[in-house]
From TrEMBL:
Keywords: Acetoin catabolism, Hydrolase. The keyword Transmembrane does not apply. SUPFAM superfamilies: Arginase/deacetylase. This is Acetoin utilization protein AcuC. CDD domains: HDAC_AcuC_like. Pathway: Ketone degradation; acetoin degradation. One of its GO terms (biological process) is epigenetic regulation of gene expression. It comes from Geobacter argillaceus. Belongs to the histone deacetylase family. Residues 22-313 form the Histone deacetylase domain. Pfam families: Hist_deacetyl (PF00850). Gene3D superfamilies: Histone deacetylase domain (3.40.800.20). The keyword Nucleus does not apply. GO terms for molecular function: histone deacetylase activity; hydrolase activity.
Length: 380
């Protein structure tokens, strides 16, 4: 029997706004869904579309501080401007807008539903387009993230006695998720991201390997600017893939941010759909129950193309590299010139690539020395 998959999507995901000039534009969710539908991927025989639902605040307390949630509740229905910088609320990065807490809870509920579907309903994969808020801390909003949906969902899996591997492919380090599981061996966290030497959130270095029982279960591959497709695949193939396979989790949770793409306005990596699709196909081949979330991405067409490709891979569908004609007509009215779903493999300029390659190889060597003996064994 073909594996069942679930896409978690609701028009409500795009019903709020961070502000017209904020880098995070919620229209990305609608655009991604429209492209998925244009390819007919919303009507696959073994797939279903789920709206997500609601979430009890008690579940949020499995990670977040009561006072932090109380302040968000208070601000949620405020008509005027509100801010509490102790909790990271109300600045230009994490604005307080009407219904922001309702919206964050809806996004979190969708990831929790994805986790439930793969563990209780027999789905092979569940993908929440509106998930991936990996910067939210226990008592502080950060990096456009108010609630850490990945942590809340993973906590539901841990409560069932399951072991989880979390892989973060966003250009930014998954600091909030790492924070939550830094001292446990029940969750293996792996983040491949642009280096915090010069890039938000300033964390995610090779020496952040966990503490206590969690020592060796926190893995970071910081990438220098201009890492291209081949180097991104190298980091995945030589670090993430063997560690996930050796850890052999009950559930795989991934954050699939598209801000690694070379035309993203906020980042300096040079990834394309080539390496992105390659990694997704390798993850699917693991045949581990898979909870996927969206994440970053500040070029909306990159986001739509990336997540449409992801959903196609999850369902074993091959897509035309040309965008559907009706979709092209629609995006032309929005000012987008795109015609193609897929990019050619990209190589960075030689000098920049050589510096990035040296850094990747040093990171891999460090991880092999410090992490592999813990996860794979002394001869791994």
């Amino acid at each position: 029997m073909p594996a069942r998959t679930a896409l978690i999507y609701s028009p409500e995901f795009s019903a709020y706004t961070y502000g017209d000039h904020h880098p995070f534009q919620v229209q990305r969710f609608r655009l991604a869904y429209d492209l998925i539908a244009a390819y007919g991927l919303d009507r696959l025989p073994n797939s279903t579309i789920h709206p997500g639902g609601e979430i009890d605040e008690e579940l949020l307390l499995s990670f977040h501080a009561p006072a932090y949630l109380a302040r968000m509740r208070e601000f949620n229905d405020s008509a005027g401007s509100r801010a509490d910088f102790l909790y990271g609320l109300g600045d230009s990065e994490n604005p307080v807008f009407p219904g922001f807490y309702d919206w964050a809870r809806r996004s979190t509920a969708a990831t929790v539903e994805a986790a439930r579907l793969v563990t209780e309903e027999g789905y092979a994969t569940a993908f929440n387009l509106a998930g991936g808020w990996h910067h939210a801390h226990r008592a502080r909003a950060s990096g456009f993230s108010y609630l850490n949906d990945a942590v809340i969902a993973i906590n539901t899996l841990l409560a069932k006695g399951l072991r989880v591997a979390y892989l973060d492919l966003d250009a930014h380090h998954g600091d909030g998720v790492q924070e939550a599981y830094y001292d446990t061996d029940r969750v293996l966290t792996i983040s491949i991201h642009e280096s915090g030497i010069y890039f938000f959130p300033g964390t995610g270095f090779e020496d952040e390997i966990g503490t206590g029982r969690g020592r060796g279960y926190s893995v970071n591959v910081p990438l220098l600017a201009h890492v291209d497709d081949a180097l991104f695949m190298k980091a995945f193939d030589e670090v993430a893939y063997p560690l996930i396979a050796a850890f052999d989790p009950d559930v795989l949770v991934t954050q699939l941010g598209a801000d690694t793409f070379r035309t993203d306005p906020l980042t300096r990596l040079e990834i394309t759909t080539h390496s992105y699709g390659y990694i997704l196909r390798k993850l699917k081949a693991l045949r581990i129950p898979w909870v996927a979330m969206g994440g970053g991405g500040y070029d909306l067409m990159n986001v739509a193309r990336a997540w449409t490709l992801a959903w196609a891979v999850m369902n074993g569908e091959e897509l035309s590299p040309r965008l559907p004609a009706l979709f092209v007509t629609m995006i032309r009215s929005l000012g987008y010139p795109h015609n193609s779903l897929l990019d050619a493999m990209h190589w960075a300029e030689e000098d920049e690539r050589n510096r990035a390659l040296d850094a990747v190889e040093k990171s891999i060597a460090t991880i092999r020395k410090r992490i592999f003996p813990v996860i794979i064994g002394p001869y791994g």
